[in-house]
Each structure stands twice: as C-alpha cells, then as structure tokens.
Design goal:
- The strands form 2 sheets. The protein has a 7-stranded mixed sheet with strand order 1-2-3-4-5-6-7.
- The chain is built from 8 helices and 11 strands.
- With 256 residues, it is an alpha/beta fold.
- The chain has a domain of 130 residues: Metallo-beta-lactamase, Chain A (4-Layer Sandwich), CATH 3.60.15.
- 36% of the residues lie in helices and 23% in strands.
Length: 256
Amino acid sequence: MKSTVTSLGVALAVAASLGMGGVLAQQVPSKRNFDGEIQTALESAKTAAGFEFLGTLVRTCLLPQSGGEDSRDNVPGYITDPASAPARDTWYAEPAKVFDNLYFVGGKLHSAWALTTRDRIILIDTIYPYNSEELVIGGMQKVGLDPKNIKYVLISHAHGDHIGGAEMLQTRYGSRVVMGGPDWDSVAKYPNRYKTMAPKRDIVAADGMKLTLGETTVTIWLTLVTRRARFRTLSPCWTAANRSTWRIPAAPLLIS
C-alpha cells in the first residue's frame, strides 16, 4: 500500500511538473515577425494611398525594398566640396512659433523643432551640416531661444538631413543626443558617410521610453520604416494654457 501511495505521489508530482511546464511554455512570448509586420504595413499604406502621391509611394514602399541597405561609405559631396551644397534659396525658411512652447526651426524641405520647457530645451532633428548653423542655431536665436539651453537632441533617424548638426551641437553645447540603436550602429559602421555628422554614442532610444525635462515628458516610439526600426515622438504642447498632445511630423521618431 505504501508503495502504491509513493508511486501515486511521484506520478502526481511529474504530472504537476509537466502541467506547470506547459503553463510556462504558454507564457513565453512568441518572437515577432518584423518582416511580416513591415510587409503588412506597406500593403495597407499602398491600399490606402491608391494612385495618389506616387512619388512618396515609390520612395517609401518600392525603392528601399528593392535597393536594400546602402552599404557605401563615401564622404558626402557637400562635405568634401562645400561649394556644391544646394543654394540657400532652395532650403532657407523663416523660423516660427507654432504653439506656445513649440518652435519650427527647419527649412523648406526638412524640419527641425524646438520644444521649450521650464528647464531648458528639447530639439528634434538637426537638418544638414551645411545649413544647421543658420536654420537651427540662427533660427532659435531669431525666435528668442538660446541654443546653449538645448538639453536633449532627438534624432529621428540617421540620414544626413536629420543628423547633420548633431555632432556640432553635442560638441559645442554638451547636448545629450538620443537616437535609435540601429542608427547609432550605422554611425559607427560608416565613418566617412557621417564625417562631421557623428556625435559620440549617447542615449539609445527604446520603444516607449520617456524623457522628462521640466514639466514636459516626451514619449518615444520605435516605428518600422522599410527594414529598420526608427522612432517617432508624441509631445504635450501648450496652446493658450490648454494642454494638447501633438505629433511631430518629422520622419520616424514618435513624442507624447
């Protein structure tokens, strides 16, 4: 009888162990299929766009997919020969106060934004190296902001028209630079491509990461664009004492 009870106890223990293992196995999250998610998002975008905005459709949905990652590591022409940079009248735009604490300091084709708080400034994107001095630094000064007060520089992704002034701002003002991990990796991998545009690796943006400065908290969301994760931002802005959440319409960085 004792033997039978012992055997039954062992059997129950084994069964419980197997059952527990099954429960634990069910709790392990499945690995995300990023390529599948990207393809689904692209197909949805194509369906929604139809035959409107064909230029954007081709650039965003077709060319990156067919071309793959650009592995060239060449110094940009506007760095090797500054005279080859586009003429000022093709990119210059006046800065403007958009909301009570949000300022546009970008150009005709590319945007940059200054978000003021009670404790310094958050800058979103930095344009090209050949015009960040005039658009970002000069633009901030025109609207009464001091570039020395830039605490954080958020780079949505590491293309020259977004990261161009980041190294200069980090070196000159000691600003903290925030960027997604894959883009930090690209900066390290392609030193010629990012000549004069390579800030020292600093804060790596994570999905849902919150960045607080003064009374303002910025939430960063990673988004899948072509085959790489970049990020977008949602930010609380203030209009006539009313708080509203506003999406920064820069490329893929999200602020809340």
